[in-house]
């Protein structure tokens, strides 16, 4: 058991636990190419990091003048993404160590993601993170996606934890804003380095400007220990 009064930990999935953005980019590129947008770039993709798939596609329809419905585009993109995710999704090694360390101490954990339930399930099962991360919330299960706090508040509810006793790990501006709106502390690990100076990141209790290169399981655990109440 833990020697400190550990908070509950809520993980974002994409870009935080796993490096799934390359797969999301490729799924988006393929989907848009099939609908007459042949030159979708990584730089364009970066503006959607941290935003739910449904909200991304809703914006695509306006930005690119797509005629297909949101539901049809969702089906196509999710199909491409699930195929890619099952074939190759990489867990950040230090994140896996952190999850395993917390699990060994019995710390309550959840995943709260803008991805579809099917995508979350596929990634957690394929990477074996589902052994430790059984409480899962998709933005499709709540009224509003990030930056609204709904997905994090629902995660806290399912864990039976007060939001003030939760710490969120996030990589993107919308997620950090959502954690702040939920009244939760946040460890921010920017996926897009250029966004580290965004005002939303300044609300994080701990900001690792170097992103995943700077994150270590040991240091994160020590920070939790220092900032927690004595058991």
Automatic annotation (TrEMBL):
Stored InterPro entries: HAD-like_sf, HAD-SF_hydro_IA, HAD_sf, PGP-like_dom2
Signal peptide annotation: none
Alphabetical list of Gene3D superfamilies matching this protein: HAD superfamily/HAD-like, Putative phosphatase, domain 2
PANTHER family, sorted: 2-DEOXYGLUCOSE-6-PHOSPHATE PHOSPHATASE 2, PSEUDOURIDINE-5'-PHOSPHATASE
NCBIfam families the UniProt entry points to: HAD-SF-IA-v3
Name the UniProt record assigns to this protein: HAD family phosphatase
Organism annotation: Streptomyces hirsutus
